[in-house]
Amino acid sequence: MTIRIGKVSYWHVHAWDYTRQAQEHPDTAITAVWDDNEVRGREAAEQLGVPYYAKLDEMLANPDIDAVIVDAPTDRHEDIITAAANAGKHIFTEKVLAPTVEEAERILKEIKRNEVKLTVSLPRLNDGYTLAIQDILKQGLLGQITYVRVRLSHNGAIAGWLPEHFYNLQQCAGGALIDLGCHPMYLTRLFLGQEITGVSANFGYITGKEVEDNAAVSLYTASGAIGIVEAGFVNSHSPFSIEVHGTEGTLMYGTPDETLLIRSNREQLGEAWQERSTGNRRESAFEQWVQHIQKDTQADENVSIALELTRLMEAANRSAKEGRVVQPVQLGE
User: Does residue 95 or residue 44 have the better pLDDT?
Assistant: First the structure.
């Protein structure tokens, strides 16, 4: 049976990407659009050939809609996702889940109470290089992990192709870090493989926007391993790159080519760096969401990582604002 999806806002730059995923999936279809920007919403609905709803509650009350894709402003996530959950709609949304842990926990409480399926788009968890790196770490080829660095940056703020509302602090709850930096943040946390005990962030404002366009965050752990998260809107030709260092070896990806290199004392690799296959990616977050709906299962791991991402982002924002190291465990309830 086709899962009928209401598209909630085209505010986010990836909104049409998720629309295409829904159009291309054999078991899903976009059947309605709501957007608080009526012009934007009506244009999208007309392009898709589906009804436009001026009021979100009217769309959510439609029994012919089974689920929603939420690409609304980040500061509206709690109200919108909670309303969708209370209407019995399954929910797929863009990172982050919410600006704060407190809001995210309230969202998850309603998700659980209404027994709907939630999946958050954390796409780089499913890419081949991530799976290959996890396999290397499971084999212990790097020894004890001591340092992880992940960088993702582009030139959107200086080349002028980012939408102006991406510089709105209220709507976005941040700039380069909460947008691009989400990906390095959850990957760095994943590769460190341990609880983050402290977060220290430094934000830069190269273009003078009200949100940061340059960011570096240090993640601390009880073992002494350190993670570095880097993101920016003001960098030309900056490759997405990963470094993972340990007591017995190092791996690198994207420096600058999209190849995975490893050198380890625990393999007969000689003195040279060796290239490893990144393999195939697994199902996208959208595909996983559809499967959870169809099989009546929950995206427990995905939701747990999304909540931790929200926690680390809130800690980083507080650190940059207050000029101190923030302990993530103290955030939320």
Answer: 44
Question: Distance between CA atoms of 267 and 234, rounded to whole angstroms?
Answer: 40
Q: Mean pLDDT across the chain, nearest whole number?
A: 96
Distance from C-alpha of 121 to C-alpha of 306, rounded to nearest angstrom: 9
- 269, pLDDT greater than 90: no
Buried b (16+ CB within 10 A) or exposed e, 241-252: bbbbbbeebbbb
Q: Are the CB atoms for 30 and 5 separated by under 8 Å?
A: yes
Contact between 151 and 186 under an 8 Å Cβ cutoff? The reply is no
With 0-12 CB in 10 A as exposed, 13-18 as middle and 19+ as buried, what is 222? exposed
Instruction: Say if CB 9 and CB 15 are below 8 A apart.
Output: yes
Helix (H) or strand (E) holding 85: helix 77-86
What's the DSSP call for residue 230?
Answer: E
Each residue's pLDDT tens digit, 38-72 = 999 999 999 999 999 999 999 999 999 999 999 99
Neighbours of 156 (CB within 10 A): 21
Handedness of CA 326, 101, 163, 20 (dihedral sign): positive
- What CA–CA distance (Å, rounded) separates 208 from 231? 16
Please state, in angstroms and rounded to a whole number, the distance separating the CA atoms of residues 88 and 82. 10
Residues 6+ apart with CB under 8 A from 296: none
pTM over 0.90: yes
Q: What is the dihedral of CA 261, 266, 267, 271, to 10 degrees?
A: 70
How far is it, in rounded angstroms, from Cα 198 to Cα 218?
A: 8
Q: Region 279-308: what's the mean pLDDT?
A: 96
